[in-house]
């Protein structure tokens, strides 16, 4: 194992250990067990089953993205490689995305770089949907969130000149970047090339042959995620 | 908390997934901090919710992920 890899996995382990420390710190097990006993096990099981459905939607959507590129894959293989990718992610964060591509590549004879491109498109789409979910949550729960921000952030900012100066400097920096955007994001620069690559990835989503089905699967994935959370609450 | 509370909790857990911690363990913290700080849920209850969400998910990934991995290993002769 290379030194960089050892450092990377060491860092992951450190992040994990820190999280475990903060979770167990001041943890009252008796209260936790009492709360756990109140949990409806049937709903917890239902939540995990909805999770299976979310992966099925993801596999179906992956097939749809691959179709216009000229590759037909078996649903079972797309599902199982996605599922086992989650298992790999448990050990090495993000490695599951590559392993699922490698598996489907072997089982269905699809070039691995094509699959990685589609996974990249999926991830971009997920980020867009996550932003939509965040905006929806903020709009629906505006009163709760605003009173929290007002109490914990804005009220403290009013009394802190240094933070205000940093905030204004940050906004001015953003303005400078916005004015220089054309130069920064031009096709010659590394940022520009990355942006063009990402844009090409997103474009492949719009070439799907069944756009309605594609949207339905995408919405289905996020509805499943919402229901998984809701059942536990 | 209803569906809207579920939506907020989904946001908390999704933000936790972004942190590259082993097995997505940062979701436990992001969920309980969000529920405790913003929704004023008692800390033990908020932690219990975060842990149940995380444990159920992990258990499912381990069980079904292993089954899927074995199936794919057979199909690809890994």
Structural features, described:
The complex is a heterodimer of chains A (233) and B (78). Chain A is built from eleven helices and no strands. Chain A is mainly alpha-helical and 233 residues long. Chain A folds into two domains: 1-38; 39-232, no CATH class. The longest helix of chain A has 29 residues, at 112-140. Chain B has 78 residues and is mainly alpha-helical. Chain B has one domain. In chain B, helix 2 runs antiparallel to helix 3. Chain B is elongated, with a radius of gyration of 16 Å. At the A-B interface, helix 1, helix 2, helix 3, helix 4 and helix 5 of A face helix 1, helix 2 and helix 3 of B.
Please give the structural blueprint.
The complex is a heterodimer of chains A (233) and B (78).
Chain A: H1 3-24, H2 29-38, H3 41-66, H4 75-91, H5 95-108, H6 112-140, H7 142-158, H8 161-179, H9 181-184, H10 190-205, H11 211-232
Helix pairs in contact in A: 3-4, 3-11, 4-5, 5-6, 6-10
Chain B: H1 2-18, H2 26-37, H3 43-76
Helix pairs in contact in B: 1-2, 2-3
**On the 0-100 scale, what is the average pLDDT of chain B?**
81
Radius of gyration based on Cα positions of chain A: 22 Å
**Oligomer class:** heterodimer
Judged by helices, strands and strand pairing, the structural class of chain A is: mainly alpha
Report the major sheet of chain A. none
Strand content of chain A: under 5%
Q: Total helix count of chain B?
A: 3
Approximate shape of chain A: globular
What is the straight-line distance between the termini of chain A?
Answer: 42 Å
Largest interface: A-B, 57 and 54 residues
Gyration radius of chain B (Cα, Å) is 16 Å
Net shape of chain B: elongated
Order of helices and strands of chain A: HHHHHHHHHHH
Strand content of chain B: under 5%
Q: From N to C, what is the helix and strand string of chain B? A: HHH
The tally of strands of chain A reads 0
Output mean pLDDT of chain A. Answer: 79
**Number of domains as seen in the coordinates of chain B:** 1
Helical content of chain A (DSSP H or I, runs of 4+): over 70%
The number of E-state strands of chain B comes to 0
Distance between the termini of chain B: 46 Å
């Amino acid at each position: 194992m290379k030194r960089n890899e050892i450092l990377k996995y060491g860092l992951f382990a450190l992040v994990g250990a820190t999280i475990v420390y903060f979770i167990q710190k001041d943890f009252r097990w008796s209260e936790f067990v009492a709360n756990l006993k109140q949990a409806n096990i049937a709903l917890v099981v239902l939540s995990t089953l909805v999770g299976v459905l979310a992966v099925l939607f993801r596999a179906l959507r992956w097939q749809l993205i691959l179709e216009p590129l000229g590759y037909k894959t078996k649903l079972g293989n797309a599902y199982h490689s996605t599922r086992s990718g989650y298992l790999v992610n448990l050990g090495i964060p993000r490695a599951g995305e590559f392993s699922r591509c490698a598996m489907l590549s072997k089982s269905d004879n699809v070039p691995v770089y094509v699959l990685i491109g589609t996974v990249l498109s999926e991830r971009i789409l997920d980020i867009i949907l996550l932003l939509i979910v965040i905006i929806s949550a903020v709009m629906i729960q505006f009163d709760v969130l605003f009173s929290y921000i007002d109490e914990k952030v804005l009220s403290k900012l009013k009394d802190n000149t240094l933070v205000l100066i940093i905030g204004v400097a940050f906004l001015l920096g953003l303005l400078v970047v916005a004015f220089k955007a054309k130069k920064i994001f031009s096709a010659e620069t590394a940022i520009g090339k990355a942006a063009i690559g990402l844009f090409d990835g997103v474009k492949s989503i719009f070439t799907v042959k069944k756009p309605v089905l594609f949207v339905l699967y995408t919405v289905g994935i996020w509805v499943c995620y919402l229901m998984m959370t809701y059942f536990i609450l | 908390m209803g569906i809207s509370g579920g939506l907020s909790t989904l946001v908390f857990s999704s933000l936790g997934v972004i942190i590259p911690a082993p097995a997505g363990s940062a979701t436990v913290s992001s969920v309980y901090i969000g529920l405790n700080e913003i929704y004023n849920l008692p800390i033990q209850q908020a932690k219990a919710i975060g842990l149940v969400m995380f444990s159920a998910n992990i258990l499912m990934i381990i069980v079904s992920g292993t089954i899927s991995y074995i199936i794919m290993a057979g199909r690809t002769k890994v």
